[in-house]
Amino acid sequence: MPLGLRGKKKAKSKEAARLVEGEPAGAGSRSLPAQAPRHKLVFHTQLAHGSATGTVEDFSSIQELYAKIAGAFEISPSEILYCTLNTPKVDMERLLGGQIGLEDFIFAHVKGIKKEVNVYKTEDSLGLTITDNGTGYAFIKRIKDGSLVDSVKTICVGDHIESINGENIVGWRHFDVAKKLKELKKEELFTLKLIEPKKAFEIEPRSKAGKSSAGKIGTGRGTLRLRSKGPATVEEVPSETEAKAIKKIDDLLELYMGIRDIDLASTMFEAGKDKVNPDEFAVALDETLGDFAFPDEFVFDVWGAIGDAKQGRL
Q: For the residues 213-227, what does the mean pLDDT come to?
């Protein structure tokens, strides 16, 4: 096992630096122009609590998508908490993240009732898993059965966490929110301000006639990959082995960091699949995901999952 895993942070090459700054690779040398997409991708969308059907197109990021949805329904983008694919229900297994199946139907969940909840922390673990929508809203993705928070019935899966003990956390990433909750002192009372998604009558999932995929993300022939910088790209659906490795990494994120983020797990897999040892993988994580403070044990376990995928053991 290599020593000094987290200490071996290599200097970025000039080529890598140019890529980070948005300069094309091989700038100054002859290169082929980027090809424009052959046709526009158009997605159908509705408000999850009920609305007419709209369409959105020409977006490359979550922020742009939310703006397009908001424009279609004449609401503010800040009203959108998160989106689900192919179901209007608060289904955390069908959250829209960094990828959208080319035939997926988008349901937007908007702000509903505000509530303030006081909780007495009797245990170290609250039993919460936190994620975020990519535009500054963290929300509850999972509540562990039998946990402290599970006993507080006013706290629900899908609730947006607006503040903790009076501190506004809008704009925080999910890992920062999870850390803040973990650091709350035991045997003390804390206060959460929450916003639940707007609800209406029960709506059944779309039928096959609606051209939506019947399963999870990426059940079509390809997916649209959204990026924080640069244009969106159409990619092939991951293989079954790759999908299993990404799912395993997502499970490790929850185990070690109290968050679930399938897109983060996918990014970690992509960062490591062409590396030959854990030291190179650790450097790639630092370069790609420098905001995270991953423990060494977590990095080794993720590397193990990537290795299992390479060797066909998943």
A: 49
